[in-house]
Structure formats: C-alpha cells, structure tokens
Amino acid sequence: MNQPNAPLPADVLLRAQSLSVRFGGLLAVNDVSFDVRRGEVFTLIGPNGAGKTTVFNLISRIYAPTSGSIAYAGPAGTVTLTEQPPHRVAGLGIARTFQNIELFEHASVLHNLLIGRHTRRETGLWADMLFTPRARAAEIRAREKAEAVIDFLELQHYRDTLIAGLPYGVRKVVELARALCTEPQLLLLDEPSSGLNVEETDDMAFWIQDIRDELGITVLMVEHDMSLVSRVSDRVLAMNQGQVLATGTPHEVQTHPGVVEAYLGTIDDVSSLRRPEGSAVGVRA
Q1: What tens digit of pLDDT does each residue of 223-273 get?
Q2: Is there a contact between 168 and 100 (Cβ–Cβ < 8 Å)?
Q3: Residue 167's CB: how many other CB atoms inside 10 A?
Q4: What's the distance, CA 28 to chain centroid?
Q5: What pLDDT digit, counting tens, does each position of 95-115 carry?
Q6: Which of 90, 28, 31, 37 is nearest to 59 (CA)?
Q7: H helix intervals, the chain
Q8: In degrees, to the nearest 5, what angle opens at C-alpha 234 toward C-alphas 59 and 193?
C-alpha cells in the first residue's frame, strides 16, 4: 500500500495536476489541471470528444495517465490516486455511475443496492459461509443502509422489483442509489440526465442537490444538459479537444468566448447558417 503523501489543503478533496493521456497519435487529454473542493458540485462540460469522460476514467483508474497525477484526500490521508490499483478506488470513498447503466438486470433493486455494499464488507469468507453472529450483525447493518438509501431516493415502490422490469428513468436512480450505498465522499456522475425526459431530469437535479446538501457528499459530474448544469453546479470546467477552456461559475463559463465558440463556432460560422434575406423556404437563393 502506498504511503500517504503531503496533505491537500483542507478545502480540497481532489487535485488533478497536468494530466495528459495519449492513445497512439491522439492526445485525448492535454495538460489538464483542476481542484474539486469538499462539499461542491463540480461539473465538466464540453462538446463530444472534448476529453471529459477520459478524465473520469483517469479518476476511476480505468485509464492511466501518460503524464500528470491526481491527489486525493482519502480516509487514511492524501494519496496519489493514479498510483492506486483500480480495485481499491471504491474502498477509498469514490463511487461512480455510468452513462450506459451498469446494473444486474435479473436481480431486484434491493439486491443491486446490497451489491454496492461490498466495499464496506466487515467479515471474512468463513464467517459469511457459516453465517456467524458477527456476519449476521454485518448483514443487518448492510440492509439498514440499503433501506435508508431506498427511502432517501423514494424507491420504496420498486424495492423488490427486478431491474429488467423497470423503466429507464428509474434504473438511472437505482444506479445512483447503488453508488450511495458505498458511502462515498466523492461521487462521480457520468451524464446523469442522459436519456431522461424533462420531469425525470428535474428529479435528478433535486437528488444531486440533496446528495450535496443533506448527505455532504462532493459531486464531480460530466453533463451536456446546460439547464441541469446551471441548476446544480457550484463550479464548472469547460474542455475542448482535450484542453481546459475556462473554469468558474456556470454563468461565467457559459458566457466565456472560447466556450461559446467551441459549442457554436465563430460569429462568421453562425452567420453563414442564416438564410439570405429575401430567400424563401425551399427555394434556392
């Protein structure tokens, strides 16, 4: 196990420094640095291919950086996250949801949430096989935590329903619930509104705010829906072509000239899309 490093400032939970990732000749992430402060919702935005999900994959250790590092204030002190094996990430208090839902479809909602408790396992193999008093007590605590999350996200109606029988919007909430069952201090949300309708997106916004405000969990999010970003984010980092364009409040970032250009193009690009005056629809000018 790696020894803890120099501690981060008290208000910083995660610090990415000069991250770069190269896939062959493609520089997917280029010298990206940022801090995620404790108790905030920090959101990565940018066009498709900007490198947002690659940064997520670096934090969750799916990828290793070509250069740079990530420092994280874990339960035992600050560690270099990029030196940790992938299977230790959840145990350090980092949970993640995925844009493409990853649930056990032929298990119930409750059982999926109990699977999320594996990082908090308190007993060994033999105790579990023999179902000793200590194992029984640990099972009760795990079920109590799962039931508390079910109540928090108002999933009582679906508690014993198989995932395969649930609508897509409910599945997104169940995946969020499973992540919360690990009792994270940092929650990574990858496109939480993807595939949701307007009402479901509104509900997701409330859950994210409650996770921050009531549970005290720091949220790092990748999101395309700018209305959701504006509603829940404390700070936003905009990326394009693997590089940082701007960091600040949602309003500051969304009005930044470089961000506007990355999404809409230059003024000349936008002007070229306008129909010439006097031309009729369906008629060549």
Answers
A1: 999 999 999 999 999 999 899 999 999 999 988 888 888 776 654 543 443
A2: no
A3: 9
A4: 19
A5: 999 877 888 899 999 999 988
A6: 90
A7: 52-59, 109-115, 125-130, 133-152, 168-180, 198-213, 226-232, 250-254, 257-264, 267-272
A8: 65
Q: Own/partner pairs for 7-12, CB < 8 Å, 24+ apart?
A: 7/73, 7/77, 7/78, 8/71, 8/72, 8/73, 8/78, 10/38, 11/37, 11/38, 12/36, 12/37, 12/38, 12/73
More confident residue, 158 or 283: 158
Alpha carbon 71 to chain centroid, angstroms? 17
Q: Whole-angstrom Cα distance, residue 132 to residue 245?
A: 56
Task: Let me know: does 39 contact 216? Beta carbons within 8 Å.
Answer: yes
155 C-beta neighbours (distance < 10 Å), count: 22
Query: How far is 113 from 135, CA to CA, in rounded Å?
Result: 18
**What is the rounded distance in angstroms from the CA atom of residue 210 to the CA atom of residue 84?**
30
Average pLDDT of the residues of the chain: 85
Q: Where do the CATH 3.40.50.300 domains begin and end in the chain?
A: 12-93+184-272
According to CATH, the topology of domain 12-93+184-272 is Rossmann fold (3.40.50)
CA gap 21, 68 in Å, rounded:
9
